[in-house]
Each structure stands twice: as structure tokens, then as C-alpha cells.
């Protein structure tokens, strides 16, 4: 009997890419007797909660139309006051965050 190391079968264990490889059956080969008939996965209650939250977020409007209408009205009537200090502080924080994130990369 000759043992040949150049077989074309793939390993049964994961090879680092997260996918399990199963050997390819050659003509005349029989199916492995240890093949699982089905696989059950239980993700728990956290997955159900995430799915529920995902549906809630999808149905929630991203813009508060009443707030937008209120600000438009205030601008048209000249009552809208811009807080220059708050705008400047937000711009400085935004630039600081961008600089620090680019230095980490």
C-alpha cells in the first residue's frame, strides 16, 4: 500500500479565515458517517432585542419637523439668536477630534 501526501482534500479545521472547510468527495468515495444532519443556533434574547430596536430606529424620523418649523418661523420673524461662542466651541472640538483621530491612524 502506497501513502501519498499530495491528496487534494482540504483540512477539516478552520485555517484562520473563520470558515470550516470540508473535503471534496471524489467519485467512488462514500459520504462521511459523522456528518451532522442539522445545525441549531440560539442567539438568545439579546438578538431579539437588537432586532426590535432596529425596527424602532427604522420607523423613527431623523428630523423633528415641528422643531424645524419653529426655527424657520423664528428666523423669518428675526427672533432667532445665534450663540457664536457655542458655534466656535463646537468647531474647535470637531477639529481637535479630527486631528487626534488622524494622529492615531
Q: How far apart lie the N and C ends?
A: 58 Å
The overall strand count is 0
**Proportion of helical residues:** 40-55%
Strand content: under 5%
Q: Gyration radius, to the nearest Å?
A: 30 Å
Average pLDDT rating: 77
Shape: elongated
Largest sheet: none
Q: Helix/strand-derived class?
A: mainly alpha
Q: How large is the count of helical segments?
A: 3
H/E series = HHH
Oligomer: single chain
Low-confidence stretches: none
Give an overview of the whole structure.
The structure is a single chain. The protein has 105 residues and is an all-alpha fold. It has a domain at 64-105. The chain has three helices and no strands. The chain has helices at 45-59, 65-76, 84-104. The longest helix is centred in the last third of the chain and has 21 residues, at 84-104. The two termini are 58 Å apart. The model has no long low-confidence stretch (mean pLDDT 77).
What's the structural blueprint in terms of helices and strands?
Blueprint: H1 45-59, H2 65-76, H3 84-104
List keywords for this structure.
mainly alpha; 0% strand
Give a quick precis of the structure.
By secondary structure, the protein is an all-alpha fold.
